[in-house]
Amino acid sequence: MIVTVTANPSVDRTIELPGPLERGEVLRADTVRSQPGGKGINVARVVAEAALPSLALLPARAGDPLLEQLDAVHLPYRTIEADGPVRVNLTLAEPDGTTTKINESGAALSAGLIAQLTDLIAGAADGAAWVALCGSLPPGVPADWYATVAERLHALRLRVAVDTSGPPLGAVAGARPDLLKPNAFELAELTGGDGAFLEAAAADGDAEPTAAAAAALAERTGGAVLTTLGASGALLTTPEGTWFARAPRVSVRSTVGAGDSSLAGYLIAEQRGDEPADCLRTAVAYGSAAAALPGTTPPTPAQLDLAGVHVRPLP
């Protein structure tokens, strides 16, 4: 089983526009979608679409619209009671694939609720292949909470993957997670580089600057680093080596959740025993497939273009 933790879940509303977003104008929507969201939930949905066992852990009070949506897509989940409603995040999607996100902060968690969620994770994750700690933290949760949870899970001999940003990312790196999934800008946060430069270099086919930064981070954490680079692909750094994968060309509808799908793809491939290069290939294929779908729709194995992902080892 792959267990995911979404401390700050959301209902994701995606509005697809017929043309470019124009500030100050009255615009009409082509389509509007409301889907269960939050990084961990997105990962769990992709895993479930691959017919593998998954379990999503999150705070939400009984009857919340998010839980009704999770029931509708038949995703297994467990919750602690929250003090307020799950937030609603808004995405404006333009025809060329440009997305603008407006995210609410989320309901605050008290110290008692944080303790309940931590205990829920430790209990529900027993025997899991991976536990993925994903997304932002809601108000009231300290920045080092992911690090605290990772240390507790490691004491239970469980493997931990982390996908977050900002202060929580900086704090959890010291807890030596088994897998970190930064993008170029988050990698730069941790290594003191320039995310825009790393992303631009990768777009030009030069993955060496990103590889050097990821290698430094992997040495610091002792685990693997999966660096997603948008349309350019992704980079995987492990103790065994470094690989760069070019993404296939797709017609982008929404990039929201594409990184979550990449993480899910990696975990799916890794837990079935694939070699690192094939884990990276699967991760990139999932991320690309997600970008071609509307909203945060999870891709299925049938939608993957594995042959279109070109993987090469780096020195």
UniProtKB/TrEMBL annotation:
Pfam families tied to this protein: PfkB
GO molecular function: kinase activity
Gene3D superfamilies: 3.40.1190.20
Keywords assigned by UniProt, alphabetized: ATP-binding, Kinase, Nucleotide-binding, Transferase
InterPro entries in UniProt: Carboh/pur_kinase_PfkB_CS (IPR002173), PfkB_dom (IPR011611), Ribokinase-like (IPR029056), Tagatose/fructose_Pkinase (IPR017583)
Carbohydrate kinase PfkB domain span: 7-302
Family to which the UniProt record says this protein belongs: Belongs to the carbohydrate kinase PfkB family.
Protein name: Hexose kinase
Upper classification of the organism: Bacteria, Bacillati, Actinomycetota, Actinomycetes, Mycobacteriales
